[in-house]
């Protein structure tokens, strides 16, 4: 029973399940019925489900049939009405067809027009789209065309700006077009082309600057010269404050320039053509000659391209190379001033350009770079000037060179370059200038001294007298009172030498101008140079004249007179230097002129030369002496040569009237002493082995002639018998032998007041031996002892005894 209940329960559950499945089949979409049917086939009641399904189908068929039977009459009525409508529909169709045909026929032209309108509208739409696209492309093409034009006209910086706008603003709007891609691909090439072309312009600019540096420097130096001339005209007195033109003035010509952040201009690079200006016209500014736009353009282009450092390095490297070329002087620079001028012009031109670049660009060059270049230039320039100036032998060229160096230094100082080393070097050149002046004046003095006639200057009129006095400071009241014609005591070389000394001082003063030296320094320089002129150059010239072989006594006397007057003029030279330097002689450390010493030395040399010359003349006369030392004849007059000698001495000493008294007296005394000494040597010379007392008597007559000349007072100023003392040795010796006063000589020898005080025993012995030899010669019969021949032995013994005593006196004298 339980099984029956369980079976019944399972049957109910199965029936309920089948019912659910059937409801799902009825309510579910056909596409989703698969899972429902699968559940049927998965179960075990497939048959019963099929039965349930058949039953449900039959139920639905019965319901459909009932519904159809209920609505059949309505359906029939509907079919009947539909059949009626079909006829009407056919008529309507025919009417519509006919109407359509008519409409088609009537609307054929409209369709054609509408088709044309459609095409027009399509074209209009296409045109509008094209216009829109072209409006986007035209600015691009215009910018590109503008870029090409700018490239063609070498306006590279605007071209670069155009390229930037084209790349970043216009091309992105039309980047999908093929021509834009071509442009984009071409942009790097255009940049490189702009970069290369601008660099080429810069190279042309650098080459042009190198070639025209001398023109730029010449203009800058001409400006500096005009400014200095203007200062001298306006001030006419020592300037207070700075002597240099300010930096602001140097750049006033750039007031109209544009800022350094944009190109200066779009003109071609190089030097602008400027015609030579006359001296009285305004000189253009040095920088006005130069178009710096290539530098600015290239700088900005490289800055925009991000290669500014590359450009700066290239520019500085090239300019350093050019600096080395500019600083290399030509080998023949020292030959002419133009060589130095061109050298300075190139250096000034180089640094004017660099200074302008420094102040008109931001960082292309800096102060350290300029200072480094200037230090190199300064050292090389000074070295070159030292080398080449040492070859200069013309003082005018050295002076012109100095003025050129001063102008060179002044010009560069205007632009802020330190030039103290140049002025220090000028002090070195000053010494060289002094040497060249001394050499030049040595020739001048030589010509003056060689061309002088060494005769007093004759004047025949007051005008001539004033002319000479105007050339040389001379005052003589007695000479002024004398009537014309009259003579100055000195010869022409005195005023000429005096004026040349003044010219030398002027020449020294010229070199000191514009060296910014104090008056004391200038005064010291002039005095030292003048001292060199006096003590070395003039002194040597005078000494050379004095030492000439053919110099005469008259010339020597005139030289003494001339140097005496030049010595007196030294104080006027001192005053002359004081007047031009405004430094009083009493100032501490003021150098004194050594002219007095120079002229004294020259005068002493001339005096010595006079003494020597006189002695030589005396020797020449003595060479004419022809004594017969063996003669027995007693003469009654002096020898002819001695008479001529005395006549010569009288005429010579008559010329000494204008000499200082002591000079004439010294010359006369020297001549008499030399004559006495020479006569003594003539008497005692070793070649004369024998002599007679007759010859000694003739010699005595000659000595008496000399003593007579001494007593006559050929030169005033001697005290009585002073000049005769020159012959005292000869006189006492001759008296001793002629008077044969040996007893007195031997007895009084050594006494201060003895009669034969000046007779030397050795001299007496020499002369006695000569007489003794003659007496021993038996072949001689005409000697003064012939009448006493019988007593020869006794006399010979006497001579031998005297000789023995003389030898004893000589030995004791030596001991």
Automatic annotation (TrEMBL):
Single biological process term from Gene Ontology: Golgi to plasma membrane transport
Domain Exocyst complex component EXOC6/Sec15 N-terminal: 52-221
Lineage: superkingdom: Eukaryota
Alphabetical UniProt keywords: Coiled coil, Exocytosis, Transport
Classification via InterPro entries: EXOC6/Sec15, EXOC6/Sec15_C, EXOC6/Sec15_C_dom1, EXOC6_Sec15_N, EXOC6PINT-1/Sec15/Tip20_C_dom2
Pfam family, one: EXOC6_Sec15_N
Example of a GO cellular component annotation carried by this entry: plasma membrane
Family, per entry: Belongs to the SEC15 family.
Role this protein plays: Component of the exocyst complex involved in the docking of exocytic vesicles with fusion sites on the plasma membrane.
Name of protein: Exocyst complex component
Gene this protein is translated from: EXOC6B
């Amino acid at each position: 029973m339980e099984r029956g209940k369980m079976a019944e329960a399972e049957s109910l559950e199965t029936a309920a399940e089948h019912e659910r499945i059937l409801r799902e089949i009825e309510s579910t979409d056909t596409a989703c019925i698969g899972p429902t049917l699968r559940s049927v086939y998965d179960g075990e009641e497939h048959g019963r489900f099929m039965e349930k399904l058949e039953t449900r189908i039959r139920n639905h068929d019965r319901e459909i049939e009932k519904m159809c039977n209920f609505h059949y009459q309505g359906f029939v009525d509907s079919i009947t009405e539909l059949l009626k409508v079909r006829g009407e529909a056919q008529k309507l169709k025919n009417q519509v067809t006919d109407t359509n045909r008519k409409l088609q026929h009537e609307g054929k032209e409209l369709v054609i027009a509408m088709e044309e309108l459609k095409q027009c509208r399509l074209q209009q739409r296409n045109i509008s789209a094209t216009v829109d696209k072209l409006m986007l492309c035209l600015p691009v093409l215009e910018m590109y065309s503008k870029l090409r034009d700018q490239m063609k006209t070498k306006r590279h910086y605007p071209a670069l700006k155009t390229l930037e706008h084209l790349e970043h603003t216009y091309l992105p709007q039309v980047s999908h077009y093929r021509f834009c891609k071509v442009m984009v691909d071409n942009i790097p090439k255009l940049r490189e082309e702009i970069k290369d072309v601008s660099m080429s312009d810069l190279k042309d600019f650098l080459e042009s600057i190198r070639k025209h540096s001398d023109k730029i420097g010449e203009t800058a130096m001409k400006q500096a010269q005009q400014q200095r001339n203007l200062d001298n005209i306006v001030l006419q007195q020592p300037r207070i404050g700075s002597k240099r033109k300010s930096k602001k003035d140097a750049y006033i010509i750039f007031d109209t320039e544009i800022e350094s952040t944009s190109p200066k201009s779009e003109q071609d690079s190089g030097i602008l053509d400027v015609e030579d200006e006359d001296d009285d016209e305004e000189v253009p500014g040095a920088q006005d000659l130069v178009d710096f736009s290539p530098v600015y353009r290239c700088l900005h282009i490289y800055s925009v391209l991000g290669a500014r450092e590359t450009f700066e390095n290239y520019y500085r490297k090239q300019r350093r190379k050019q600096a080395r070329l500019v600083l290399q002087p030509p080998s023949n620079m020292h030959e002419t001033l133009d060589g130095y001028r061109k050298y300075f012009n190139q250096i000034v031109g180089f640094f004017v350009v660099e200074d302008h670049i420094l102040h008109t660009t931001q960082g292309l060059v800096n102060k350290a770079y300029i200072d480094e270049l200037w230090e190199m230039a300064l050292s090389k320039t000074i070295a070159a000037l030292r080398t080449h100036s040492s070859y200069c032998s013309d003082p005018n060229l050295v002076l012109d060179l100095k003025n050129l160096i001063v102008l060179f230094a002044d010009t560069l100082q205007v632009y802020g370059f330190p030039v103290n080393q140049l002025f220090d070097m000028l002090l070195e050149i000053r010494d060289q200038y002094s040497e060249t002046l001394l050499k030049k004046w040595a020739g001048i003095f030589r010509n003056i001294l060689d061309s002088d006639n060494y005769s007093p200057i004759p004047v025949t009129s007051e005008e001539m007298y004033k002319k000479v006095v105007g050339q040389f400071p001379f005052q003589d009241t007695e000479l002024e009172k004398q009537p014309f014609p009259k003579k100055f005591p000195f010869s022409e070389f005195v005023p000429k030498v005096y004026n040349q000394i003044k010219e030398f001082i002027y020449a020294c003063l010229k070199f000191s101008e514009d060296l910014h030296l104090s008056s004391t320094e200038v005064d010291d320089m002039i005095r030292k140079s003048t001292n060199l002129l006096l003590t070395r150059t003039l002194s040597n010239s005078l000494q050379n004249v004095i030492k000439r072989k053919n110099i005469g006594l008259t010339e020597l006397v005139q030289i003494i007179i001339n140097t005496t007057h030049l010595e007196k003029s030294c104080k006027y030279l001192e005053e002359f230097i004081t007047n031009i330097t405004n430094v009083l002689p009493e100032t501490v450390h003021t150098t004194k002129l050594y002219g007095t010493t120079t002229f004294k030395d020259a005068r002493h040399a001339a005096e010595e030369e006079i003494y020597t010359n006189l002695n030589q003349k005396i020797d020449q006369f003595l060479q004419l002496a022809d004594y017969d030392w063996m003669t027995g004849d007693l003469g009654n007059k002096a020898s002819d040569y001695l008479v001529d000698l005395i006549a010569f001495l009288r005429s010579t000493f008559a010329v000494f009237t204008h000499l200082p008294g002591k000079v004439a007296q010294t010359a006369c005394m020297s001549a008499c002493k030399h004559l006495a000494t020479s006569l003594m040597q003539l008497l005692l010379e070793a070649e004369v082995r024998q002599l007679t007392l007759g010859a000694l008597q003739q010699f005595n007559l000659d000595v008496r002639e000399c003593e007579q000349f001494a007593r006559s007072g050929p030169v005033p100023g001697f005290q009585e018998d002073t000049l005769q003392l020159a012959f005292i040795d000869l006189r006492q010796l001759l008296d001793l032998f002629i008077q044969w006063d040996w007893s007195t000589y031997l007895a009084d020898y050594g006494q201060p007041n003895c009669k034969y005080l000046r007779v030397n025993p050795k001299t007496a012995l020499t002369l006695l031996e000569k007489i003794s030899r003659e007496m021993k010669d038996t072949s001689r019969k005409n000697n003064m002892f012939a009448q006493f021949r019988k007593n020869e032995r006794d006399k010979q013994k006497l001579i031998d005894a005297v000789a023995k005593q003389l030898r004893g006196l000589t030995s004791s004298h030596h001991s």
